[in-house]
Amino acid sequence: MSETIQPAAGASPSRSIQWSTVLLWAALLGLLALLGWGLINTTAARPEAGEAAPAFTMEFFDGYGWEERPAADLADLKGKVVVLNFWAAWCVECRIEADLLEASWRKYRDQGVVFLGIAYADVEPNSLAYLEEFNITYPNAPDLGTTISRKYEITGVPETFFIGKDGHIADVRIGPVNESVLDGNIARLLAEGG
Amino acid sequence: MKTINYVLRFAFYVLLFLAIVWLVTPGVAQEPVTDDEVNDVAKDLYCPVCESTPLDTCPTQACADWRELIRTQLSEGQSKEEIYDYFARQYGDGVLAAPPRRGFNLVLWFFPVAAVLVGGFFFSRFLRNLRATGNSPAAVVVDEPEREAYIDRVEQELQER
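ok -> structure tokens follow
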């Protein structure tokens, strides 16, 4: 005696269901791809010395533009030595290097060197008060949307990137810079071609 | 005498009018923004410096500056949403406790729902296929004589031990 439950008649997958399966698989893979892309973007590697400096656009504070421009791209500065400094008005250690950066800017500004200050996670009136307090005259901009600091994966402020004439990062300094670091890097990068 | 009474009455109404205007004028009669009101907005924002710390409890100077900014914005009559929009624009979406529903964030919002729906569909398909191909437990062929022979064999082996 045998008892068998037979498959229901017409239970074989129909053509429409197969198509819907394909579509669902495609949707699932698409979602996973998007998720992966997002994760890769949020965990971008920190640019190190020797690598190309990530491109960015700055919208300068009023009165702190570069060559009277209200905004500039890093690419506009190709052929110049760039000292890119991340700072904030709430940052105590930034105050240690503020006078030195301004003095160094005044020393090298006519030799093809551009200093760029990026105010990280700062409140604009406080940033402007800080710039005024230290008589800073080099180009400065807020880090709108923290896009620039995320591209450079900064660990905190102050942090300074020395970028050569070829647009590559030559040195990265975490914490306040001193005179020998500034002079040494700038002299070396000015001597290099590009 | 009558004239003096008129003047006094006129002065009284003028003063009354000025007092009412003073009371209803925003910025003069307005109460200062309290810490609780500031923290009610700040609790849904995150510190830019220390990770995973809500702005209302963060002790850093950066957060104190941000809370003051919120206080100023509230005193200007800005709504919570306007303040969150400003912070997202100025400091990035990462400062918001709840990511806004735009761009890549849409994936984060809808992925769990989509995953449950797709998973449910595939599971139902799997169950249906299982039944259709006869692999479900209910579809196992039960052959009585064969089963009885098998039980006899097992009992015999047990007795031999």
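Chain B touches chain A through 40 residues (CB under 8 Å).
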